[in-house]
Amino acid sequence: MSSIVNKQKLLNQVLDKGLVGLLDTTLPETEAVDIDSLPVLEQIIYAFCREDASPLQADRAFQQLQERFFDWNEVRVSAIRELAEAFEGLHQPYERSERLVAFLQELFETTFSYDMELLQKKGMKIAAKQLERQQAITDFIVAWVTQRSLGGHAVPVDNSTVRCLKRLGLVDQELDKLPDIRASLEHLVPKAKNAEFTDTVSRVALEFCHDKAPACTACPLAADCPSMRIPPLPRARKAK
Ligand code: SF4
């Protein structure tokens, strides 16, 4: 069977299983961030929280930012240490805070406002290019905003997602640049399924497919995963 057919079969398994079997790691619907209704600026800031983080972690961090700071201008002028507290529990909270401040600073210096709604009217490609030009914006953030706010076909990938997708065989081992990995996934995943694919794989990556000691025996994708590992049985003690 060709590699592309194998990948398509595996992709169908991932999408069929959906979120079944994943741990209960999202907030109740009434408390969760309503991602689909976020304006463009908030969607970008949510993406800062969501990269290499689960939906639960991202929702909490985003809500902390909104509750602890009066507005995005206060976030821009606050100490990195204070911002990092809102990102507590996430990977690289200080680096995230520095990038968020750099993004808000650049936005403020170029537009003297925090309104990004015009971006949606520029058309998807021009809007994505404009975002890419900002140093603090990663490939993940551009793809996230393209997927959720600009109506484009994009599959955001972060480091934890890539680790899991390579183990599953949905991404070739030799691909190492995030834009190349994203482009290969955008050929594979249908546009109508890209948000579902993003959420499912990122949750499997963070809940089971850990860097060290992946929890394969509990993973909902274990039956279809060529990298599934069974931990060795404890050695039986010799009778004296
Ligand atoms: S079975 Fe193991 S290696 Fe494969 S996706 Fe699940 S946790 Fe990762």
Layout of secondary structure:
Blueprint lengths: L2 H15 L22 H11 L4 H14 L3 H6 L2 H7 L6 H19 L6 H4 L2 H9 L6 H10 L10 H10 L9 H11 L5 H14 L33
The structure holds iron/sulfur cluster (SF4).
Structural commentary:
The chain is globular, with a radius of gyration of 20 Å. The chain has a single domain, classed as Orthogonal Bundle (Endonuclease III, domain 1), CATH 1.10.340. The model has no long low-confidence stretch (mean pLDDT 87). It has 240 residues and is mainly α. Helix content is 54%, strand content 0%. Residues 164, 167-168, 204, 208-209, 214-216, 219, 221-222, 225, 227-228 line the site of iron/sulfur cluster.
List ligands, each type once: iron/sulfur cluster
Total individual domains: 1
The ordered string of helix (H) and strand (E) elements is HHHHHHHHHHHH
Give the overall silhouette: globular
Mean pLDDT over all positions: 87
User: What is the class in the CATH system?
Assistant: Mainly Alpha
Question: What is the structure about, briefly put?
Answer:
This protein has 240 residues and is mainly alpha-helical. 54% of the residues lie in helices and 0% in strands.
Entry keywords:
single chain, 240 residues, mainly alpha, Endonuclease III, domain 1, 12 helices, 54% helix, 0% strand, globular, binds iron/sulfur cluster
